[in-house]
Design goal:
heterodimer, A: four-stranded antiparallel sheet, four-stranded antiparallel sheet, B: about 220 residues, 8 strands, elongated, membrane (chain A), Transmembrane emp24 domain-containing protein (chain A), GOLD_dom (chain A)
């Protein structure tokens, strides 16, 4: 079973790389429709120190020679350009995030045929999904069921980390809520006292004014 | 689509099946800005695959009041009929069994004029069944169990993504409440002080000499 697995895995590994370029745009990717003019952007809110791996390719839709040319640009939340390619039909980019925020990937059509849109397949993976399992398998010499279970273990660890993150965010939000609640009470009491103080000042001022005018 | 599938040979079909047993179908939660209608496409390889996902409308500074129509989601199968639809929500989960393989269209519709950002996540999960086991002798029942386990972990991860996105939205609301509270309270105090000052000025004017001479 192991030898057979090893024999079938090697061409599968090679085919995986080929498939990613030829067949897979459309297997594990989301497709976007680019308008004939204008930019289509997708974004994601990412934490720092997360690996981002993405593949994009224009999809064959009509005649094979009429493939639209697109440009792609990826920007960080602070405005730095992480990837910029013009006049391509496919490409890929990978980076590790340094700041927390919204990472934006924009695509637009470059070719002269402005009347027709284009379809771009984008395979965007971050964090645990971007891990290169083939190199891990080769390095640790694990394969088959053991590799699958290792992947599942990594997924469980990611779930655990996410849960802790959600818990800490919920704690922060609860603090904000409780502070707001305390402030509402405090501001209402202060508003009532401002009302009373202002009316006392009014009465005191008017009394003095009428006494000065000898009206009372 | 049909021409593309026919050009894939039998060996590649087995490779795809082998790949699917090793490469989890997985996406990241991308955000897209919906002006009127935004469609994303997702390819489902097998009939009977469970397509699950969620979407949350990320709030900006404009907050929805109770009569906001919300965002609609319509999922269309490759044959053109609507498989799933959700109307007027600020975010929800969805899950359906794909009636056939092919390209599924997920359309977000924004009935309002202000553009909204929708963060969505779509996952296509395949569990090898007896038919796949019979076709490919390299799959044994343990792969089925591993696939089920992977799908279960995937659903936990998807739930966490949904919770994270809803938490972001909730946090926006909370912080806006806090900001608005401070702003409105200070404005209220100012308005109160100005109103009472104007009252005093008006009463003084009522009683000043040139007017009172003819009255009192």
């Amino acid at each position: 079973m192991r030898l057979r697995d090893a024999v079938i895995r090697r061409p599968a590994v090679v085919a995986l790389l080929l498939c990613n370029m030829l067949l897979a745009p459309g297997v594990t990717a989301v497709w976007l429709n680019l308008p004939a003019s204008g930019t289509k952007c997708v974004s994601e809110e990412i934490q720092p120190n997360v690996v981002v791996l993405a593949d994009y390719a224009v999809v064959h839709e009509g005649p094979a020679d009429g493939l639209p040319i697109i440009s792609a640009k990826v920007t960080s939340p602070y405005g730095n350009t992480l990837h910029h390619k013009e006049h391509v039909t496919a490409g890929q980019f990978a980076f590790t995030t340094t700041e927390s925020g919204n990472y934006l990937a924009c695509f637009w059509i470059d070719s002269g045929d402005k009347s027709v849109g284009a379809s771009v397949s984008l395979d965007w993976k971050i964090g645990i999904a971007a891990k290169d399992w083939d190199s891990v398998a080769k390095k640790d010499k694990i394969e088959g069921v053991e590799l699958e279970l290792t992947k599942l273990e990594a997924a469980v660890q990611a779930i655990h980390a996410n849960l802790l993150y959600l818990k800490s965010r919920e704690a922060e939000m609860r603090e904000v809520s409780e502070k707001t609640n305390a402030r509402v009470a405090w501001f209402s009491i202060m508003s009532l006292s401002v009302c009373i103080v202002v009316s006392i000042l009014q009465l005191w001022h008017l009394k003095g004014y009428f006494q000065k005018k000898k009206l009372i | 689509m049909e021409t593309r599938r026919r050009s894939i040979g039998l060996a590649e079909v087995f490779l795809i099946v082998g790949l699917l047993a090793t490469v989890p179908c997985r996406l990241s939660a991308l955000s897209v800005t919906v002006n009127d209608v935004e469609c994303v496409y997702e390819f489902v390889l097998y009939e009977g695959d469970t397509v699950s996902g969620n979407f949350v409308v990320v709030d900006h500074d404009i907050f929805w009041n109770s009569d906001h129509p919300g965002i609609d989601l319509v999922v269309t199968s490759p044959a053109g009929n609507t498989v799933h639809s959700l109307k007027g929500t600020s975010g929800d989960k969805f899950e359906f069994k794909a009636p056939r393989g092919g390209m599924y269209k997920f359309c977000f519709h924004n009935p309002n004029r202000t553009p909204e950002t929708v963060s969505f996540y779509i996952h296509v999960g395949h569990i090898p069944n007896e038919h796949d086991l019979a076709k490919d002798e390299h799959l044994n029942p343990i792969n089925v169990k591993i696939a089920e386990l992977r799908e279960a972990l995937e659903s936990v991860t998807a739930e966490q993504r949904y919770l994270k996105a809803r938490e972001v939205r909730h946090r926006h609301t909370n912080e806006s409440t806090r900001r608005r509270l401070t702003f409105y309270t200070l404005t209220e105090y100012l308005v109160l002080a100005c109103a009472s000052g104007l009252q005093v000025v008006y009463i003084r004017r009522l009683f000043n000499k040139s007017v009172a001479y003819n009255r009192v």
